[in-house]
Amino acid sequence: MKIKLNVRQKISFSVLSVALILFAITIGYFALSTQKAARKNLTELTISYTDQYAMVIENWLSNDLAVSRTISKAFLEHKQLPFEQWRELIMGMYKQIMIVNPHFDAIWDSWEFSHLNPDWDKPYGRWLHIYYRKNGKLLSKYEKRSVDGDPAVYQMLKTKTSETVVEPYLSALQTGGLMTSLTSPMFIQGKFVGIIGIDLFLGRFQDLIKDIKPYEECASFLVSNEGTIVAHSDTSIFSKRFQDAYPELDSTMQVMTRIKRAEKFSFIFSNTNGERCFYSFSPINAGKTNQPWSLAMVVPERVMLAEANRSYNVGLLVGIIGMIILIVTIVLLANTITKPIKKITSLLESLSIGKINHHMKVSINTGDEIEQMGNALSKSIDGLLLKTDFAKDIGEGNLNTELKLLSDSDTLGESLLDMQASLIKAEHEDEIRQIDNQKRRWINEGHAEFADILRQDSDNLERLNQKIIKKLVQYLDANLGGIYVKNDNNAPVTFDLSASYAYDRNRFLDSSFEWGEGLVGACAAEAETIYLTEIPQDYVQITSGIGGVNPNNLVVVPLLVEEEVLGVIELAAIKIFEKHEIEFLEKQGESIASALRNVQINHKTTQLLQKSQEQAEALASQEEEMRQNLEELQATQEEASRKNFEMQAILEVLNASSFFMEYDSFGKIISVNDKYLELLNVKRNEILGTHHSDNLELTDIQRSQYEKFWDDLRNGKTQKQTTKTSVGGKEFSFLETYTPIRNSSGEVYKVIKIASEIIRTENN
């Protein structure tokens, strides 16, 4: 069953319910936020304290390590003095260092025998020099050590290549206290030669830990690299191993592993009593060692949340008092609100059924939002009345009526204005649509009329062009025009005026244009339309019986077909050419260009046909002349064949009776007959490629005569000479004739030598 409540009851019930829910949420959020903020602040504060004191301890150890490091670097120069003198110097230095640093328990060094004595051949043995405190006094000594072998600790230090913090150990002089040693090794050319060490009593770290007390209940402790608790707020845990004192903490949180990695970390962990505590660990990296320590601080979680709990209790008490005051206020306020709401409800019920008039007003003087609500309702009614009158005017066709918006957020008013704008836009678009239809119809009719013209006079280019330009001027309502046709019979190519309409006689003076010349030539060169609205006053003039006037608009369109410009159309007018008229002219230019090409092709075909007939007649005459030439050629070929046969016979006789050899124009042998090879007793491949002058010993005069001999041959002069040759103990005398042979260009490309034997004698 649905329970019906009046406004007063709903306001009281709703506000009280919301108030209680908000109260619970606020208190819960306040408590959680307080606890979270307190936890965060104390966590950051605890970590800050841990970092601060860890830095103090790190500085102490680093400063002390710096002393040993400085001494080790200085001592590497000890060879400049005899060792005994050096010993006195370093012992005096150690005393001053111990006086300046009262917290040092001892300072010592160790020098390897193998470094001090080149004859020492054992890997152990060393000199020890030490200055130390005992019973408040400074004592010193030096002695030999490790003569029978190095102890384990010293052997470990020798293997270290960097500074070392020795794991804390019980002091022999300070009973019950822990000590550590800070060492710096010395190397010369990679070889260990000694070590500098400082012994520190760690009691001052215990004093520092006792002073770390940022909270009433907290604990701090210092852990070495291997887990020795160097200092602790609880002295009973002092000197124990961390793994033994906190086994569950170490195994669960991997504390020692993270300390050795020099990590900074924190966490919450429950101790053996079940109390949750916050642990903060900060690393301590002394000098250049790789043995980090860690300082830890422990704070119980209840300490961190104590202040938050107190704030929570105070907030709860304040909230309860506030709820009581709120209940009383809500009851009184509900009565004040509900009365004027009833008046507003009555008006809204009338509006809900569509009733509206100028008498529907409400007057509320509460001075609050209820009054603003009533005024807003009255203003809304006035706005609705204005919009009603506006809608009536629009419905009656008065699209120019005005409506003032109530505000920038008047959605209904904006919708009515949008409706008005849409109606105006639709009316305007209808007008544009009618204009577009008229343009489209004008274009289609123009294409049809020009198609009829282009189908006519396909055999007369000038008559066709005259009809085209006349129709274009009339159809585009221009004043004058002309068609220029490409003439590629001239050099250079020109565009000549083929037809014009309404041009005066002066215009014909410029009836031909080259590529790029004038507007006509520029249009042809760029193959693009040129449209000018301002042209020179003397460019062209429109004349009539009563005077003349200069046009203001000029359009020049190329006649394009397959990207070739066949001509140019030029139109001039007083009126402005519209965009669709220029587009029509460009489109029509393509059709005109195609028609021009067809006319030109037909004209060329006619010319070619006539020329073909003339050539056929000439060809018949040439055939008879060619027949006679062929008969003469056949007789010539027969005579050449006979002479070639005779020449071949002569060559065979020469080859059998004479010694025959061919040279290139530079004297290299390129051919030789068998008879010559038998005489010289050589193989063909042994002589081919050799030079005519091979095996010839010539004087300077003979060399000059020899070069002239070949120059004459290359110039086409036949040469003769007598030579003597000795082969196999036999001496031969030859009469040699050198004949140059020319190619079809008349150049000497080889030389033929024919040699005849004159006398043959044998050497005794």
Distinctive features:
764 residues, alpha+beta, Beta-Lactamase, 5 domains, 7-stranded antiparallel beta sheet, 6-stranded antiparallel beta sheet, 17 helices, 25 strands, 49% helix, 23% strand, flat
Q: What is the gyration radius calculated from CA atoms?
A: 63 Å
Instruction: Indicate the low-confidence ranges by residue numbers.
Output: 504-509
CATH architecture term of the largest domain:
2-Layer Sandwich
Q: In the CATH hierarchy, what is the superfamily of the largest domain?
A: GAF domain
Number of structural domains: 5
Shape summary? flat
Describe this structure in words.
By secondary structure, the chain is α+β, with helices and mostly antiparallel strands. The protein folds into five domains: 43-60 and 204-305, PAS domain (Beta-Lactamase); 63-201, PAS domain (Beta-Lactamase); 358-395; 456-609, GAF domain (Beta-Lactamase, 2-Layer Sandwich); 658-762, Beta-Lactamase (2-Layer Sandwich), CATH 3.30.450. Helix content is 49%, strand content 23%. The chain has 17 helices and 25 strands. The strands form five sheets. Strands 1, 2, 3, 4, 5, 6 and 7 form a seven-stranded antiparallel beta sheet that branches. Helix 11 packs antiparallel against helix 12. The longest helix is centred in the C-terminal third of the chain and has 79 residues, at 579-657. The radius of gyration is 63 Å and the shape is flat.
